[in-house]
Design goal:
About 40% of the residues lie in helices and about 15% in strands. It is built from 29 helices and 34 strands. It has an eight-stranded mixed sheet, with helices on both faces. Helix 14 runs antiparallel to helix 15 and helix 19 runs parallel beside helix 20. The chain is elongated and about 140 Å long. One of its GO terms (molecular function) is hydrolase activity.
Length: about 850
């Protein structure tokens, strides 16, 4: 890099948002080669990507402490100020000759830790053809003093910046950046924003470029409307921010807690209102805590961009003496003859060097060994552990490279492998990222490792994985995308304009984010949503799902019968469903075959006319299906009220219809005894079978008819659905549900036999007896049924036979006192019983 040439130097000075960095990029790209030094690795990476888009990847290099992308044909270099290839007595990347050179944020020459580096670049970094010094207007008198021949160009801010006062977190406007001064406060604010506003992006200087870029991209795309950052956000990171809120006005500068200087306040506040858009700044009020306050003088200075000019810069002697380590320390601490260049405060590299020099053997190092020691001390303290702890790592590194050797691959690989772990919380991942940055820095020193390219790739891979994991953790912890989208759209367009969509599988989304699932007409909030967010999500869906629910109801009203189904699982309530979704529950109605419908609460979201139409459609379906499977039972009910039938027929059919189509013959002894020949013919036409043991309707014994009878009886009695026997089963064992078995089976001890089969066995026995036969049992049928001997004996006893040895003797059916059957409350027989008493 050329030195001297102050006549080609221009100082572009002004507040934030004056386009200084943009101008430097344009000017560099207009030259055959160039270099720009930035205050942050993140900013260098951002500009690198922009220049690559202009000049192509083969022509652009990126050089920072931990990252080196240097194609052989690179002509444009984007660097941190520490990594700028300027003349240096320290071993490392050599100086290069560039047509253009720029130093960004040169006013940071007043920074106690890094100021001497900015001052050195301001004084010594020059381009052959053009040099730009970019910085605040407060730098003007020092530029005139130190570079008398430089041209000074003042640039006005593109937009205005106004003070907006204090605001609560819940009242912050969208596109706000909240600036805090500790990682703990950043995390706490981001957590609160997740609850109030759906989340926030997080930007801190300790983040890797990949993590930072992913977080900023999330903010820029509008996935979140808020950003929480440390004061690193003030260093030229360009984002679409309209308001900057200060969570505090004090920071720890590495030595003490102090109030921000007015230029520092302005640098941060200036992130608001980029380009031609005006911006605002203010403070953040947090509950009962007193909000930080700007003084009137500070507000005036920030709004009008008027600050006290700088009267000094920190400086460190670049002419180092490597006679031995003590001579090196003396040269580093040598003062300048210019009064505006003050000796730099003790920084971490010099503090570590002094600690190591306490060892006489180290202090005696000379020449090249002293140079290597000073180069090792330049390893940044990324972990922020302080000089004492950092010196331990430097001592070990130097023990390998001091004599011109290399760091052992085993140690390097083991340390990197220890950090290659994506498990843990945000703090653990951030700590590992800081650790791997140290090894990335070492990997880019070609004189410290035998295979630097290999290990640079290894550390880059580890950093990439840790960055991805950290971004994922930050997003998981501080961003609820659903709430963010809802809050943004409610604020921008009102709740009635929320972009709610329903996928084919029922997933409900607001914009790109799923908020729940619509099953039938029932909306369920995503179970992963936190409790505090569920009310908001449910309200959003309630207001915006009306059209979809109306469409579904209209479609269902016009649907064929096969779209509806009876839900009658054992132990559950009986209901009407659609594709497995609950529509209504059955309730007792006017009769067993005319149940009522109680629509599900989910249907309350429908309009009254649409809900009534859907209810009417379900009632038609229910009437059709009951008629299909229980038509004979319905006819029994009508016969019970038909005056054309005799009283005996009406009584018998009424009792049979009320019982669901099956009763023991003994329960109907009285009405059967009064039947005439014509009455029996009428019952035959009604398909009633007057069996020897049971009175039943054969069609009602079919599996689907049994299911519907069981369901309707369960509804009438208010009991859950019983467990039905297997379709077509002839016998049941003792484990059968008595309520379901009694609908079609006769109990024979622990065994149940279907009533039509019991009737066949009984009819055969009577036929054999009438013919004076010997064996009244239909052996082939009994064998095919697998009827146990005990059950067979009970059945024959019910018919009127008793076993005597190997023979069966007729003993007749003994008349037992008829039990007094209490009529079911509410039916006609209960009323008659009351009149009789």
């Amino acid at each position: 890099m050329a030195t001297g040439g102050d006549a080609s130097v221009r100082a572009i000075l002004g507040p934030t948002n004056t386009g200084k960095t943009h101008l430097a990029i344009e000017r560099m790209c207009a030259h055959s080669s160039g270099v720009i030094g930035f205050p942050l690795r993140l900013l260098a990476r951002e500009v690198y990507d922009r220049v690559v888009a202009i000049k192509g990847v083969a022509s652009v290099a990126l050089l920072t402490g931990e990252e080196r992308i240097a194609p052989p044909t690179a002509r444009y270099w984007l660097c941190t100020v520490e990594s700028m290839p300027v003349p240096s007595a320290v071993e490392g990347p050599g100086a290069k000759d560039f047509a253009f050179c720029a130093v960004d944020e040169a006013q940071l020459g007043t920074d106690p830790e890094r100021g001497h580096v900015f001052t050195d670049r301001l004084l010594r970094a020059r381009g052959r053809e053009e040099t730009l010094i970019l910085g605040s207007a407060t730098l003007k008198p020092l530029v005139r003093e130190l570079i008398p021949r430089a041209e000074i160009v003042s640039r006005p801010r593109f937009s205005t910046l106004r003070y907006a006062g204090s605001a609560k977190l819940s009242r912050l406007p969208p596109r706000s950046a909240i600036v805090a001064f500790s990682a703990e406060q950043v995390y706490a604010l981001a957590e609160m924003l997740r609850r109030f506003k759906g989340g926030a992006a997080v930007v801190m200087g300790a983040l890797s470029p990949a993590t930072r870029n992913a977080q900023v991209a999330m903010f820029q795309r509008g996935e979140v409307d808020y950003l929480v950052a440390t004061d690193a956000v003030g260093m030229g990171l360009n984002m679409d921010v309209t308001h900057v809120a200060f969570a505090g006005l004090e920071k720890f500068d590495g030595r003490r807690d102090r109030r921000l200087t007015v230029p520092e306040m302005a640098q941060i506040a200036g992130r608001a209102g980029r380009h031609q858009r005006d911006g605002t700044f203010g403070t953040l009020s947090l509950g009962g805590e007193a909000a930080p306050e700007f003084s009137d003088e500070e507000v005036f200075s920030i709004e009008e961009h008027r600050f006290r000019p700088l009267d000094h810069l920190y400086w460190r002697n670049p002419a180092l003496d490597f006679t031995d380590v003590r001579a090196l320390i003396r040269s580093l601490e040598a003062p300048s003859t210019d009064p505006v260049l003050r000796p730099a405060p003790l920084s971490i590299d010099l503090a570590v060097l002094k600690l190591l020099a306490e060892d006489p053997a180290t202090a005696a190092r000379k020449g090249p060994q002293a140079k290597r020691l000073w180069a090792a001390c330049g390893l940044p303290d990324f972990r922020k552990v302080g000089p004492m702890h950092h010196a331990r790592m430097i001592r070990r590194v130097y023990s390998y490279i001091g004599e011109g050797g290399h760091i052992p691959h085993d140690w390097f690989a083991a340390e990197v492998a220890r950090l290659d772990n994506v498990q843990g919380d945000i703090e653990a991942l951030a700590d590992r990222l800081a650790g791997v940055r140290s090894w990335a820095y070492i990997a880019h020193r070609s004189d410290w490792l035998k295979e630097p390219a290999k290990w640079a790739e290894r550390t880059r891979d580890v950093e990439s994985r840790l960055s991805d994991a950290l971004h994922e953790r930050l997003t998981q912890r501080f961003v609820d995308r659903r709430t963010a989208v809802l809050v943004r759209d409610i604020g921008a367009r009102g709740a009635d304009a929320l972009p709610v969509t329903v996928a084919a599988d029922g997933e409900v989304s607001v914009g790109p984010e799923p908020i729940g699932h619509l099953a039938g007409f029932d909306f369920t909030v995503d179970p992963s949503a936190r409790l505090a967010d569920k009310r908001l999500l449910l309200a959003a869906a309630e207001r915006r799902l009306g059209d979809e629910l109306d469409r579904r109801a209209r479609e269902l009203t016009e649907a064929a019968d096969d779209r509806f189904a009876l839900f009658a699982d054992a132990g559950s309530d009986v209901a009407v469903t659609w594709d497995g979704h609950l529509l209504a529950r059955l309730a007792p109605g006017r009769s067993l075959t005319e149940p009522a419908l109680r629509t599900a609460r989910a249907l309350d979201r429908l309009s009254a006319p649409r809900r009534a139409a859907l209810r009417e459609r379900m009632e038609r379906w229910l009437e059709t299906i009951v008629g299909r499977h229980l038509g004979d039972l319905q006819r029994l009910g009508r016969a019970a009220t038909d005056p054309a039938n005799s009283p005996a027929v009406r009584a018998l059919t009424a009792m049979l219809a009320d019982a669901g189509g099956t009763l023991p013959r003994k329960a109907l002894t009285a009405p059967i005894g009064q039947l005439s020949k014509e009455d029996r013919a009428a019952l035959y036409r009604l398909r009633v079978r007057l069996g020897a043991l049971d009175v039943f309707v054969p069609s009602l014994l079919k599996p689907e008819a049994q299911r519907w009878r069981a369901a309707l009886l369960a509804v009438r009695t208010g009991q859950p659905m019983p467990a039905l026997p297997a379709p077509g089963a002839a016998t049941l064992d003792g484990s059968a549900d008595p309520r379901a078995a009694a609908l079609a089976y006769r109990r024979l001890g622990p065994t149940w036999l279907r009533v039509d089969l019991a009737d066949r066995l009984a009819a055969h026995a009577h036929k054999v007896r009438a013919a004076a036969g010997e064996d009244p049992i239909d052996r082939p049928l009994a064998t095919s049924l697998g009827l146990p001997d005990e059950a067979l004996a009970r059945l024959m006893a019910e018919v009127g036979f008793r076993s005597e040895g190997d023979a069966w003797k007729w003993r007749g059916q003994r008349r037992r006192p008829e039990p007094v059957h209490s009529a079911r409350p509410g039916n006609a027989f209960a009323a008659l019983a009351g009149l009789k008493r």
